């Protein structure tokens, strides 16, 4: 027999509002209180209703769960805000509400997964940019229709929607080789995520396709933020590192930070060093020179994730799918 919110509150000596805040992962209660509530809910079998309120006129609620590991990659940038906009638009069109939840590495992931499963969500879109394979595997226990966004792991049987990272990095590297007629270097993130690993695959495939040795490409490891990449590149240049003729960067922030450091050291872009980024963030158009980059259809990715999770909720085409969204080379003045 399950326990009601009122009974759970009485057992823990808390108000019903505190119980609600804790179980729905909302601010207003301490981390320790939330842990106590979740543990008690597990023990007593708290009764969560899965029914959407008929009074709202909506079919249900979809949760966009954003996993943040360190903030090194997933932060409040136009890339992720546009993804969120696309998800919200897709949900509204199909008469679903959308709420955003944050999950954090430094909190108990099992408790956070339990909270998601216990909430009144029809489906979940999980932003897994910074999630490793082992952590993602723990989401198997949810038992709710779920789409994994911006990551892919071959061993896991989920519905995945991601960027075609290999294609984008290949196009960027091929463009550098054709324009500069020399072997590109690689401004590679020193922070691991699956997207960057796939971009490395695309970079080296283009190098090999051009008949070049992958061992001869200069690889500089930089922090995947503008400020971090600038500081890292400046330190390398001050230590005597000589830049090669051109580079592919894992993302636009690395590219922009590196360009700032190169220009400060007296190198001209693109005359002395050419750079291609990845993501097509708004800053690419406003910097000097404008950054050549790989465009990712972020709004479309978000809408596609919403459509896919709604298909799962409504029982249509439930076979797990991997959907890769194609990219496009945007030519500007940095090459």
Concise overview:
The protein has 335 residues and is α/β, with parallel strands linked by helices. It has helices at 5-12, 16-23, 31-44, 78-93, 109-118, 133-137, 165-180, 194-209, 226-238, 252-264, 283-286, 298-313, and strands at 60-68, 96-104, 123-127, 146-149, 159-163, 185-189, 219-222, 246-249, 274-276, 293-295, 322-325, 328-330.
Structure in words:
There is one protein chain. Helix 1 (5-12) packs across helix 2 and helix 2 crosses helix 3 (31-44). The relative contact order is 0.13. This protein is α/β, with parallel strands linked by helices. The chain is elongated. The chain has 2 domains: 5-162 and 300-325, Response regulator (Rossmann fold), CATH 3.40.50; 165-295, 3-Layer(aba) Sandwich (Rossmann fold). Strand 8 (246-249), helix 10 (252-264) and strand 9 form a beta-alpha-beta unit. The protein has a 6-stranded parallel sheet, sandwiched between helices. A 4-stranded parallel sheet has the order 7-6-8-9, sandwiched between helices. It has a two-stranded antiparallel sheet with strand order 10-12. The longest helix is centred in the N-terminal third of the chain and has 16 residues, at 78-93. The chain has 12 helices and 12 strands.
């Amino acid at each position: 027999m399950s326990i009601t919110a009122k009974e759970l509150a009485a057992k823990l000596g808390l108000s019903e509002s505190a119980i609600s805040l804790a179980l729905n992962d909302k601010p207003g209660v301490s981390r320790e209180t939330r842990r106590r509530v979740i543990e008690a809910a597990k023990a007593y079998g708290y009764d969560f209703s899965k029914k959407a309120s008929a009074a709202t006129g909506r079919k249900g609620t979809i949760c966009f769960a954003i996993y943040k590991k360190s903030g090194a990659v997933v932060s409040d940038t136009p890339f992720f805000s546009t993804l969120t906009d696309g998800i919200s638009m897709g949900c509204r069109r199909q008469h679903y509400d959308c709420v955003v939840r944050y999950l954090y590495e430094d909190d108990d992931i099992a408790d956070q997964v339990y909270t998601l499963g216990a909430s009144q969500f029809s489906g979940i879109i999980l932003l897994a940019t910074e999630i490793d394979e082992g952590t993602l595997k723990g989401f198997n226990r949810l038992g709710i229709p779920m789409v994994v966004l911006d990551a892919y792991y071959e061993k896991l049987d989920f519905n995945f929607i991601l960027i075609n990272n290999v294609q984008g990095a290949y196009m960027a590297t091929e463009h550098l080789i054709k324009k500069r007629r020399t072997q590109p270097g690689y401004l590679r993130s020193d922070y691991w995520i699956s997207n960057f690993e796939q971009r490395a695959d695309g970079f080296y495939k283009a190098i090999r396709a051009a008949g070049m040795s992958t061992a001869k490409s200069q690889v500089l490891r930089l922090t995947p933020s503008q400020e971090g990449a600038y500081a890292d590149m400046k330190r390398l240049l001050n230590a005597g590192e000589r830049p090669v003729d051109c580079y592919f960067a894992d993302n636009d922030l690395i590219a922009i930070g590196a360009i700032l450091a190169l220009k400060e050291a007296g190198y001209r872009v693109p005359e002395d060093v050419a750079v291609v980024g990845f993501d097509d963030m708004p800053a690419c158009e406003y910097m000097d020179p404008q950054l050549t980059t790989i465009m990712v259809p972020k709004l479309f990715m978000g809408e596609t994730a919403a459509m896919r999770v709604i298909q799962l909720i409504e029982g249509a085409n439930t076979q797990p799918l991997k959907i890769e969204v194609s990219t496009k080379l945007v030519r500007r003045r940095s090459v």
